[in-house]
Write a structure and sequence with these properties.
With about 290 residues, this protein is α/β, with parallel strands linked by helices. Helix content is about 40%, strand content about 20%. It has an eight-stranded mixed β-sheet with strand order 5-8-2-1-11-13-14-12, sandwiched between helices. Strands 3-4 form a two-stranded antiparallel sheet.
Length: about 290
């Protein structure tokens, strides 16, 4: 027979709260930008993972932090493209995006993924508001590379709408479609947008929830996790090819944001239950921290 699970005693609960108190005080009023990866949204326990994530975000907000959620939707975009008979093509971790694909990306991010996250948070109260980079000129984009089609670089972030929502006590949930001065929509890498928004808001933390446990010095060796690193070391790891593929935009935006004034950036394994709370409210380092 298996042992009966032990429920925490009132004393255990009090211990947890007392332990969290210094962190709650330190981060009160601070902006934390959380990039929730499309990979974290995909998979078998999608509902569970999203529900746990929503609980973490709401708890952070309720203790005085000001979370902003930025999301991708890569797997969901791939699914819809496959159903429509289109083949996804990537170069250096970025999706090649023709006119039809940019419409698919908008449909998935604004019509499917964004409302999923918003409604998961709003189970706990009327807290989350979905916005797209097209709203109130939030993300101004420019062409990244003509060969990639409608893939944009972040030209500028206008954080007015985010500041307004945060001031009113709301949690903004951002879909990463940007527009140029003509109103043309662009697909922008969500990692890049999260970094740019963190910089524009002067965030205390920038957190990437992904499907790996952190950065590794040796790609195939799980024991070679980098717990703490610097922007200079990350530059070197990208230059020598240790960091490659889809991790490049994540790491580049970490480096850029930290150099731009964000105090710390973290790459965490979004598959771990309540990993956000473990990172924010405990001493034990989870994943990789960049400072």
């Amino acid at each position: 027979m298996s042992a009966t699970p032990q429920h925490p005693t009132p004393l255990d609960t009090a211990d947890v709260l007392v332990h969290a108190l210094p962190y709650i005080r330190r981060f009160a009023g601070q902006v934390v930008v959380v990039k929730y990866g499309g990979n974290a949204l995909a998979g078998a326990s999608e509902g569970d993972a999203l529900a746990l994530f929503a609980q973490d975000i709401v708890l952070m907000q309720q203790v005085g932090m000001r979370p902003v959620v930025v999301h991708g939707g890569g797997p969901q975009i791939n699914d819809l493209m496959a159903k429509l008979g289109k083949v996804a093509e990537f170069r250096k971790g970025l999706r090649v995006t023709d006119a039809e694909t940019v419409d698919i990306v908008r449909m998935v991010l604004i019509g499917q993924v964004n409302p999923q996250i918003v409604s998961a948070i709003n189970v706990h109260g009327p807290l989350a508001v979905g916005v797209s980079g097209e709203d109130a000129g939030l993300i101004r984009a420019s062409v990244r590379d003509p060969e990639l089609g409608f893939v944009g670089d972040v030209e500028a972030i206008n954080p007015t709408i985010l500041r307004g929502l945060l001031a009113e006590g709301f949690i903004p949930v951002v879909a990463t479609i940007g527009t140029d001065e003509t109103g043309q929509a662009y697909n922008i890498n969500a990692d890049t947008v999260a970094g740019a928004i963190a910089e524009a808001l002067g965030a205390e933390k920038l957190v990437y929830l992904t499907d790996i446990e952190g950065l590794r010095r040796v790609v195939d060796d799980p024991t070679s996790i980098i717990r703490q690193t610097t922007t200079d070391e990350l530059d070197a790891l990208m230059a020598d090819g240790t960091i490659a593929g889809g991790m490049i935009p994540k790491v580049e935006s970490c480096v850029h944001a930290v150099r731009g004034g964000v105090r710390r950036a973290h790459i965490l394994d979004g598959r771990i239950p309540h990993v956000l709370l473990l990172e924010v409210f405990t001493d034990e380092g989870i994943g990789t921290m960049v400072s």
